[in-house]
Design a protein that fits this description.
Immunoglobulin-like; Rossmann fold; alpha/beta; 36% helix; 13 helices; 17 strands; six-stranded mixed sheet; five-stranded parallel sheet
């Protein structure tokens, strides 16, 4: 608790003390009594305010904070409700007359005071307000700051109530059209062992990472000694790895993450098992990053959660090292015949060589960031696109800041 006299309190105490000193000098008892009244009033008010402190340990008030929705996408608003309750009479007395202020990260409040509505009822105070999620990340709300003044406005106390809550902000995403007709055409389905769909379609093929275990043909698997699955039109959907190369320029990081998240969700909605690779997570574990499936509850949320804490590299060298690590992870833990969708920046020779080997067993598609404000970056982006195409990738240039839908359609159009 921070207890202090107000400007009025300082003035009243100062005048009272001056009158006491003057009374001593003049030998006036009445003047001393008048001066003492001011000093005693401020002291008594401080004692009352301290006794009514909202954060009193013996009789704490209960604080509940509800944030809906949480998580929220960047650029959207979320509603916050803080409920302060007390069940005992002493707590209700401490609850009355309080002024409330909520603390929030700048990414939620834009650095401005939050405008809140306060609804009071016996034993309950509800503070409600809205915040704007400006940027991807995990941002704190609270604790609640409460202020009390005495009846005469001479003393004020400030204390905090409750703890902090965290608002998770996902990247802004765009709805992209289902890409299955372009990315997984008829030749690909034939290679996967899929035929025209029918109720008795039981063509068998080797199990690949991302296949539904419910489609395992256990009798044939036991006979051969390795897992076999029934193949049909739906089982022919390839696993998808979205390879994300975060730029080392901070201005482009958020747009890049949003584009990669939009692509990953589009492929997930199309029925593909999907995983997100950033060159940082996964290469310390033998199984790498697992695929997420639409049949799994919360698959969309799980993909978006993976993007919340992504940070750009500290420089171009680290960025290239991440791409190489991601390419190595694709080669060591990927499923044969998977689709790799890259959201990449201009690459150096080492990274281009690493990605060239990916398409030996996978189908590669890449969007390469080409910043028109940096001539050297544009030139490197063209070299990257040309090198990927020579290696067997489908690749196109995209401009940071342009709509994700335009980038996506340009990539799909590069197949023609």
């Amino acid at each position: 608790m921070n207890l202090r006299p107000t400007l009025r309190g300082w003035g009243l105490a100062g005048v009272g003390l001056a009158l006491v000193l003057l009374a001593v000098a003049l030998g006036s008892v009445d003047l001393a009594r008048i001066g003492a009244v001011g000093v005693v009033l401020v002291a008594a008010s401080a004692a009352v305010v301290a006794w009514l402190d909202a954060g009193h340990v013996r009789r704490p008030l209960t604080v509940q904070r509800l944030v809906v929705p949480n998580p929220v996408h960047a650029g959207q608003r979320t509603a916050v409700e803080v409920r302060i309750t007390s069940t005992d009479p002493a707590g209700r007395a401490r609850l009355a007359g309080l002024r409330f202020a909520e603390q929030a990260a700048t990414e939620l409040s834009a650095g401005r005071p939050l405008r809140a509505r306060v609804h009071r009822s016996p034993g309950i105070v509800v503070v409600s307000y809205g915040v704007h999620a400006a940027r991807r990340g995990r941002w704190p709300l609270g604790p609640l700051v409460v202020t009390r003044t005495d009846l005469f406005g001479t003393v004020a106390s400030t204390s905090t109530l409750g703890g902090q809550a965290s608002v998770t902000v996902w990247p802004a995403v765009s709805t992209l059209p289902a890409p299955s007709d372009v990315l997984v055409g008829e030749p690909d389905r034939v290679a996967l062992g899929a035929r025209s769909p029918s109720t008795d379609d039981s063509s068998l093929r080797d199990y690949r990472e991302g296949d539904d275990l419910r489609r395992v043909h256990w009798r044939s698997s036991a006979r051969r000694g390795e897992l076999l699955v029934r193949s049909d039109e739906r089982a022919g959907l390839r696993p998808v790895s979205v390879l994300l190369d975060l730029p080392h320029r901070p201005a482009h990081v958020e747009w890049t993450v949003s584009l990669a998240a939009s692509v990953a969700l589009a492929m997930l909605d199309a029925g593909h098992p999907v995983r997100l690779l950033d060159g940082v997570r996964g290469h310390a574990t033998p199984t790498g990053v697992p695929f997420l499936h639409t049949r799994n509850d919360g698959a969309r949320a799980a993909i978006l959660d993976q993007t919340v804490d992504l940070e750009g590299p500290r420089g171009a060298t680290e960025a290239q090292a991440r791409v190489i690590a991601g390419a190595h992870l694709l080669e060591t833990t990927g499923a044969d015949g998977e689709i790799v969708l890259g959201v990449l920046g201009p690459l150096g020779a080492g990274a281009r060589a690493a990605l060239a080997h990916v398409v030996d067993s996978a189908q590669g598609w890449a969007m390469v960031l080409s910043d028109p404000q940096h001539a050297a970056g544009q030139r490197d982006a063209r070299h990257t696109v040309d090198a990927l195409r020579r290696a067997g990738w489908r690749a196109c240039e995209v401009t940071p800041g342009e709509p994700a839908l335009d980038c996506w359609l340009r990539l799909l159009g590069s197949a023609r």
